[in-house]
Amino acid sequence: QVQLVESGGGLVQAGGSLRLSCAASGISRIIFSIKTMGWYRQAPGKQRELVADITSGGSTNYQDSVKGRFTISRDNAKNTIYLQMNSLKPEDTAVYYCNAARNWDWGQGTQVTVSS
């Protein structure tokens, strides 16, 4: 069973930066490397939404609201994906999760809080 562990969240002022990490265990590096992986977020009272994803070949896709500010990357040797978040805004406040197209059990997420 795949386990996902997100980390790197915290409290930051608007305009600041954070780097999130998501480590997947219980899966081989080969299988992980062929998965499209994504970062999702859920703000209070809202649906969980896809923020960015990255394919096995490294192609990336971003939600319009984060384009130019967030960068998703992956290290297949470590079964890990990252989300570099710059120029953070209060509306980015949410719990951030990773997954492979929502196919795996969700991890505990990591809280990102951006103060104005």
Give your account of this protein's structure:
A six-stranded mixed beta sheet has the order 2-10-9-4-5-6, with no helix packed on it. The model has no long low-confidence stretch (mean pLDDT 97). It has 116 residues and is mostly beta strands. The relative contact order is 0.32.
Strand content: over 45%
Principal-axes geometry comes out as: globular
Alpha-beta classification: mainly beta
Q: Would you count the extended β strands for me?
A: 10
Separate helix tally: 1
Distance between the termini: 40 Å
Helix content: under 10%
Cα-atom Rg, whole angstroms?
13 Å
Along the chain, the helix and strand elements come as EEEHEEEEEEE
Give short descriptive properties of this protein:
116 residues; mainly beta; 10 strands; 4% helix
Helix and strand arrangement:
Layout: E1 3-7, E2 10-13, E3 18-25, H1 29-33, E4 37-42, E5 49-54, E6 60-62, E7 70-75, E8 80-85, E9 94-99, E10 110-115
Parallel strand pairs: 2-10
Antiparallel strand pairs: 1-3, 3-8, 4-5, 4-9, 5-6, 7-8, 9-10
